[in-house]
Amino acid sequence: MEKRSTKLVETMTLFIKIQAQSCQHGMLSIKPMVEQVSDPFLKTGLQMCVDGYDSETIKTNLKAEVDSTDAYRNLVIKGIVMVANQYAANPTVMLEKFKSHLSAEDQTKLDVMAGKVVEDWEEMCVSSA
Question: Is 47 left (phi over 0), alpha (psi -120 to 50) or beta?
Answer without folding.
Answer: alpha
